[in-house]
Specification:
The complex is a heterotrimer of chains A (about 325), B (about 525) and C (about 325). Chain B is built from 17 helices and 24 strands. Chain B has about 525 residues and is of the alpha+beta class. In chain B, strand 4 and strand 5 form a beta hairpin. Chain C has two domains: about 80 residues, no CATH class; about 230 residues, MetI-like fold, CATH 1.10.3720. Classes of the chains: A mainly alpha (about 325), B alpha+beta (about 525), C mainly alpha (about 325).
Chain lengths: ~325, ~525, ~325
């Protein structure tokens, strides 16, 4: 039953143009994130001088360390990445420049190239989105399936736990964890992961409660199958559909959460280039340096739309009645 | 597939939308648009609400700003000479042993509700300040050495010191005074309802406080001196600085301090300059990077001197701060007499820095691009607070430059509460901050070794000669001798480099052209003397 | 069923205690406490070793020297008598501070909820009726786009373009009342407040249309395909009557269920929207309290919102079970 189900869902998804557009955008972003150091870097791919061939971008050569290979003193054959700047190098002579031939997307208040920062920022967005969601989906599945399958006292305790987590002021927890463990990308991801699992847990629990009384479960039990077998082989795969949908939306909302946190000053550490952080630092310049606010905002917006369209498409595709449940 | 008579969602929606816009228009019409405000009203800006308007308890700059218009003290500071001049006291006497300060109060001074100001108010205020049940630790410490404030008669009062202190007159003259008849009713001063209804003798009286929105002051018609031309001051509370700047340009705020980049790039257009004047003046402050001498990596003075040479402060001042500021070499205010101008601030000198580091034993022995010593990499954490944009910029520049020199630096940004806690527990490698000093700052609190554990000497600076200079200075009433002592202190601190001293930054103030006679004194602006220049 | 309700109500108490206890512990253990914060707020102060004594004196005043379990019991005792304590920040009773901020947040949230419901539901119904039509597709895309725009970005852009006077000058730059309105009559006052709230409400509503209209659409579709609708149609009832009376009424119940879960959200303000528009609501109150380690305020807000959240969950669970008999509230033990 499983294989046919997923294949049918994929076929339905392909017919949905919006969802496929979203998928395409997500793939592009994944590519950019993976290849970021190859797309934006101050070191060239290849540098040939005096009969020696260097690959400065890939290898570390002590004699070329900390030397700016873009300057004219390094004559010879060089090929640079499309954006020949690193995300952290500053240039106090090029402060807050508009987009131009030298800096395609302009520069920020320290002369850092915005294009390089946006490209490397893609990594942060993808990382935050995927890892935080991975964390809370895993926790949610484990907790929800235990509660839904075993019921009784387990369910009682777990449901209360879920309620407690839902009541918890997320922001407060974030602040505390950041204060105690030190601010870093990892802390932000972990803390979003820890505070978002109740939603998934409730979904999984609901699915388990529903599926548990199904015929094939009864049959398996009658045949003497172990609990873990029933859970993993029968119920869990069938309850994954709404989880997948929720996770896709979750990635979008995690990215939004991270950028909101950065806006309030509680996001990643400088000089890490997260889009939300870029937006935050330069909201003072909204009236004369429009590129610093419009471009990262636009990037966030496109990314989130893509994930949401994909999620919606998945929801329609995975539910054969195509009416969509909650 | 539409069947006849089917509900057309679109038509429903458009009918609905029409109703909504009608309703909104109705309300907007009722609002009647923005009423024009009076020409004699000043709109000022606060970025956060004050906690309380009781000057004895308040600890933030916002309440200090507001209270400066309402409350007065025995003596005032002359904005040009920076000396003491009479305010609530008409003259004073100092005993030869500098232990007794006698103040003769002006007669007939009224609180803005008509009750007369007398020595009883002064005695009462002192009692409240020293009371252990009053939550004002930050103020109490100033008065530790004053044992008593004694009423001699209705208009005469004595301050008794247990040991002489060269700033005694300034402290007594600047003590906050609250009206006894308003607060002395047995209620707890920390939660007294009059903490939000301040009453003073000054040129303005408090009118209203709309929580989270604005605080309004109006001219005190009972004021004994010349009354200011501005009849009403409205402090608008705006949390978001970029919105505040938009308000300034729109004309909803009349004056504001701006950052260097705003000064240069956002306040230069013809349109802006038609409506605003710009003023620049220095106040006692300096920014610095503090190196925790207790950490092994910074315990060697040569390393600290090297760090100061690795940061191109000139370029930062010129390009990041647009040249608005002055390099400083030490802990005293650039324009004060203690500043030792014989010492020039440290120059950017990477070669010299590397030499110093080498002397201290740091070299790249394992070829990984970073310096190391005894097998440990030269790596440290730079701790900053999340409120400071300048700190972030500085940090990212430092990280790049240090990496080129072979030093690995990480930036950790904390919210203010945690940042302060780390400072207090000395849990940091290096931080950046700035000190905002008074005009008569005693270096004892920052640099004396007794302050290493619990005071503001959080870098652990300790030097025997410096200690003795500071102790002698506190008791030295001869200006010339004290100046010589403190200049010598400046040299010692310069040699040790517990801080990398950075800049003294000017206040950059923009004032609407609706106000005239905006004069820049040595100590800044005084809104009491502004005149109304007529409508724009 | 009754047994279940009683059991859940009874369980409310330990859950609430659990939440507030954990909150209190976290606040006490987070680095930074109120007293040292105030001392260090003002730079360049004189401190000596003797000031440590003064600091401790002040700690005792605030009860920060007692161990956390004592502190918690103190708070719990006072809370049960509805005494929320005094705010550390300005010495005012916590109930007064909440009383100032709550009406503003409540008004904003109610208006937002009203607008979101009034726009989303008809949209969802229309989309379900015209499933897969151009209208359905375009509205769905438009709503998703709106949902994806970050709030703080839109808020700043709105202010920049509609309020600042550089481009258009239609609305004020934040706040909830004009300074010149003190003592004005009710209608001008209400109008002035409405004028100030237009931009914040836009910011709060635009992102929420997507979810609710999709939810309505989904529920309607599920109902429309049911047998009794086909029956009603074949009985010759007019289409509007079929949709509005039969279909919509049956999809109403999940919507009401949804409202119950939104209950606790009524009291919460968005820090971002409030700080950008200078609105002194619950969001700013809670945010500032956390940053200042103002324990009484943090505890009070937390306890009240926990209570409402738990209540909302209970109502939602009950109504959901009422609607769908396939769902069992709990399994047999």
């Amino acid at each position: 039953m499983k294989k046919g189900f997923w294949q049918g869902a994929w076929k339905r998804l392909k017919k949905n143009r919006f969802a496929m557009a979203g998928l395409a955008v997500v793939c592009v972003l994944l590519f950019i994130a993976a290849a970021a150091p190859l797309i934006a870097n101050s070191r060239p791919y290849i540098y040939i001088a005096e009969e020696r061939v260097y690959f400065p971008l890939f290898f570390d050569y002590p004699e070329l360390r900390e030397r700016d290979l873009r300057s004219a003193e390094f004559s010879g054959f060089k090929i640079f990445p499309p954006v020949p700047y690193s995300y952290s190098e500053y240039d106090l002579d090029s402060i807050v420049l508009p987009p131009g031939p030298k800096h395609y997307l302009g520069t920020d208040e320290q002369g850092r190239d915005l294009a390089a920062r946006m490209i490397h920022g893609t990594r942060i967005s993808i990382l935050v989105g995927f890892i935080a969601v991975l964390i809370y989906v895993s926790i949610g599945i484990v907790v929800g399936s235990l509660a839904g399958y075993y019921g009784g006292a387990v369910d009682l305790v777990v449901s209360r736990l879920i309620e407690i987590m839902m009541c918890f002021p997320t922001f407060f927890l974030i602040l505390t964890i950041l204060a105690l463990w030190g601010p870093s990308l990892a802390s932000v991801m972990v803390v979003i992961g820890i505070t978002s699992w109740p939603g998934i847990a409730r979904i999984v629990r609901g699915e388990f409660l529903r599926l548990k009384e199904g015929d094939y479960v009864m049959a398996s039990r009658a045949l003497g199958a172990r609990d873990s077998w029933i859970i993993f082989r029968h119920i869990l795969p069938n309850s994954l559909a709404p989880v997948l949908v929720s996770a896709t939306f979750g990635i979008a909302s995690t990215i939004l959460t991270e950028s909101s946190l950065s806006f309030l000053g509680f996001g990643v550490q400088p000089p890490t280039p997260s889009w939300g952080d870029i937006l935050n630092q330069f909201r003072d310049f909204i009236d004369f340096a429009w590129w610093l606010t419009l471009i990262p905002g636009f990037a966030i917006f496109i990314t989130i739309t893509a994930y949401n369209l994909l999620g919606e498409g998945l929801q329609d595709a995975l539910d054969p009645k195509s009416a969509g449940r909650k | 597939m539409q069947r006849p008579g089917e509900p057309d969602g679109v038509t429903d929606l458009s009918r609905f939308g029409f109703c909504v816009s009608l309703l909104t228009a109705f309300f907007c019409a009722c609002a009647g648009g923005v009423s024009s405000r009076g020409a004699d009203e000043l709109y000022a800006y606060l970025s956060a609400e004050p906690d309380t308007l009781n000057p004895v308890i308040s600890s933030d700059a916002y309440s200090a700003e507001i209270n400066s218009h309402i409350y007065e003290t025995l003596l005032d500071m002359d904005l040009d000479t920076l000396g003491r001049k009479p305010d609530l006291a008409e003259r004073w006497e100092i005993s030869p042993d500098h232990r007794r300060y006698r103040f003769f109060l002006k007669k007939g001074v009224l609180w803005s509700d008509g009750v007369e100001f007398t020595a009883d108010d002064v005695v009462y205020s002192f009692k409240v300040i020293k009371d252990p049940k009053t939550a004002n630790a930050h103020r109490k410490v100033n008065y530790l050495d004053i044992t008593e404030v004694r009423k001699i008669d209705r208009y005469t009062v004595d301050f008794i010191y247990s040991k002489e202190y060269y700033l005694g007159l300034e402290i007594c003259g600047g003590m906050t005074i609250i009206p006894r008849h308003l607060f002395n009713d047995g209620a707890d001063i920390n939660t007294h309802r009059n903490n939000r209804l301040p009453l003073g003798t000054g040129p303005y009286r408090f009118t209203e406080w709309v929580t989270g929105s604005r605080i309004v002051l109006e001219r005190n018609e009972r004021y004994r001196d010349r009354k200011p031309a501005i009849r009403k001051i409205v402090y608008r509370i705006v949390a978001e600085p970029s919105v505040a700047f938009l308000m300034l340009k729109k004309g909803e705020l009349d004056f504001m301090s701006v950052r260097p980049i705003q000064w240069v790039r956002q306040t230069g257009s013809g349109k802006f300059l038609r409506s605003f004047n710009k003023f620049q003046y220095f106040t006692p402050n300096y920014s610095y990077i503090a190196w925790n001498s207790r950490r092994p990596v910074f315990s060697d003075a040569r390393v600290r001197r090297a760090m100061s040479r690795l940061i191109n402060l000139e370029a930062i001042l010129e390009k990041l701060l647009f040249g608005l500021g002055k390099r400083v070499n030490g802990t005293f205010y650039f324009y004060s007499k203690y500043y030792n101008s014989d010492i020039s601030p440290i120059e950017y000198d990477p070669a010299g820095a590397m030499a110093l580091l080498k002397q201290a034993g740091w070299a790249d022995t394992d070829g990984d691009g970073f310096l190391d010593r005894n097998g440990r990499k030269f790596s440290f954490t730079f701790t900053i607070s999340s409120g400071s944009k300048f700190a972030e910029r500085l940090g990212t520049i430092m990280k790049e430059d240090f990496r080129k020199a072979g030093i690995d630096m990480e930036i950790n940004r904390y919210e203010w509460a945690v940042f302060v806690q780390k400072l207090n527990s000395r849990d940091f490698d290096a931080v950046t901050l700035s000190w905002s000093l008074g005009y008569n700052e005693d270096p004892y609190d920052l640099w004396h070794s007794s302050q290493m554990e619990a005071g503001f000497n959080f870098v652990g600076f300790r030097d025997a000669e410096a200690d003795s200079i500071m102790e002698r200075g506190r008791r030295e009433f001869d200006e010339a001798r004290r100046t010589a002592l403190f200049r010598r202190l400046d040299r010692i601190i310069y040699r040790e480099q517990p801080y990398t001293f950075m800049f003294c930054s000017p206040a950059l103030v923009v004032v609407s052209k609706r106000f005239g006679n905006v004069v820049v004194h040595r100590a800044g602006l005084d809104t009491d003397e502004w005149t109304i220049a007529g409508d724009r | 069923m009754k047994r279940y309700i009683l059991k859940r109500l009874f369980l409310l108490v330990p859950t609430l205690i659990g939440i507030t206890l954990i909150t209190y512990m976290i606040v006490r253990f987070t680095p930074g406490d109120y007293t040292s914060l105030r001392l260090d707020m003002q730079m360049g102060l004189k401190t000596t070793a003797a000031s440590k004594e003064i600091l401790d004196q002040e700690r005792r005043l605030y009860g920060l020297d007692k161990p956390w379990y004592v502190g918690y019991m103190d708070w719990l005792g006072k809370f049960c008598t509805l005494d929320f304590g005094t705010s550390r920040k300005d010495g005012r009773p916590v109930s007064e501070r909440i009383g100032d901020a709550l009406p503003i947040t409540l008004a904003l949230n109610l208006i937002t909820m009203l607008i979101v419901y009034v726009i989303s539901i008809p949209l969802g119904i229309a989309a379900s009726v015209k499933k897969d039509s151009l209208f359905d597709r375009v509205s769905s895309l438009a709503l998703f786009i709106l949902y994806s725009l970050p709030t703080f970005w839109i808020a700043l852009l709105l202010l920049m373009f509609l309020s600042s006077g550089e481009y258009l000058n239609l609305f004020p730059l934040g706040g909830i009342t004009s300074d010149t309105m003190t003592g004005a009559g009710f209608f001008p006052l209400a109008g002035d407040a409405a004028w100030h709230l237009v931009l914040p409400v836009i910011t709060l509503t635009y992102g929420s249309f997507a979810f609710l209209s999709r939810y309505t659409r989904a529920n309607m579709l599920e109902v429309i395909n049911q047998q009794y609708i086909t029956t009603a149609r074949s009985k010759g009832l007019s289409e509007p009557r079929v949709i509005m009376v039969h279909a919509f009424r049956n999809s109403l119940i999940p919507l009401i269920t949804l409202m119950a879960t939104l209950l606790p959200g009524l009291l919460g303000g968005s820090v971002i929207v409030e700080s950008i528009f200078s609105i002194p609501g619950m969001g700013m109150l809670a945010f500032e309290a956390i940053l200042a380690r103002d324990i009484p305020v943090i505890m009070a807000i937390e306890a009240i919102s926990a209570l409402l959240t738990l209540g909302g969950i209970l109502i939602a669970d009950l109504s959901y079970a009422l609607v769908d008999p396939r769902i069992r509230l709990e399994t047999k033990i």
